[in-house]
Structures are given as C-alpha cells and as structure tokens.
Amino acid sequence: MATLMENEAFMAFTTYATIVILKMMLMAPMTGYFRFSRGAFSNEEDVSGKSAEEKKKLLRTHPDVERVRRCHQNDLENIIPFVVVGLLYALTEPELSTALLHFRIFAGSRICHTIAYVGALPQPSRGLSWIVGMLVTFSMAYRVLSTVLLL
C-alpha cells in the first residue's frame, strides 16, 4: 500500500476517479429532483396514497426526466470502465503528465457530456464529448495491454 501511495499516477487517478464517481452519484438525486418538479413518476408505489385520477396524471414520462435518467445510464456505461481501466493504467506507472492528461480529459468529457445531455444542447456536442471519453479509455487500455501483455 505504501508503494501505491508513492505512485503519482495512481494518486492522480484516485482524484479523478473520485470526481467522476461523485458526478455519477449526483445524477440520482438530480433524477429525483426532475421527477418531483415535473410531476412525472414511473412506479405505482411512488404515487401511493393519491386518488386514481392523480395517479393517472402522475404516472407518466417526461422528456426532462428521461434525459437525466439516460444520462445517468450513460455514466454507468462509461465511468465504470474508466475506473477499472484507469486503475490498471495507473499501475503501469505511466509518465505523470500523460496520466494527468488522460484523467483530466476524461473527467472534462463526462462533465461536458452531462451538460450537453441535461441541457439538451444540439448535437454533435453530446456525441463528441462521449467519443472523447471513450477514446481516452481505449488509449489507457492500449497502454495496459502493450505494457503487460503476456500471451
């Protein structure tokens, strides 16, 4: 463990991994906020105690809620691979400046992706931010494989 604490790339990784994980975690309360503020609930138990007419009105989808929910799903599909690959990448002891570039670009791309998704910005803003994050993860995966490939 002491050796890991001396690995600057690993320490940088823990910082940026924590940032993107917290960003991902904040999407759940944001979804709840949009559900309540838009009066759009997806489950019967969310509107228990309401009259049949109120339930009918509240059990619906809303574009804002769906956009935030899909953004959260996209985070799960991209941040989890980043964390796994980024950990392996950091353990290859890459040059700190290169590691920081990878981590910063990924974190920035996910933040831009969220702003583009939730703000309903026109394409290709969301698509570009998504592809940048994916390219960073693939770049780190390439480094891992090229460093430790033992076939």
UniProtKB/TrEMBL annotation:
Residue ranges crossing the lipid bilayer per the database entry: 12-34, 127-145
GO molecular function annotation: glutathione transferase activity
Compartment annotation: Endoplasmic reticulum membrane; Mitochondrion outer membrane
Enzyme class: transferase
Gene3D superfamilies on file: Membrane associated eicosanoid/glutathione metabolism-like domain
GO cellular component term, pick one: mitochondrial outer membrane
Reaction catalysed by this enzyme: RX + glutathione = an S-substituted glutathione + a halide anion + H(+)
Alphabetical UniProt keywords: Acetylation, Endoplasmic reticulum, Membrane, Mitochondrion, Mitochondrion outer membrane, Transferase, Transmembrane, Transmembrane helix
A Pfam family per the record: MAPEG
Assembly description: Homotrimer; The trimer binds only one molecule of glutathione.
Name used for this protein in its record: Microsomal glutathione S-transferase 1
Native source species: Seriola lalandi dorsalis
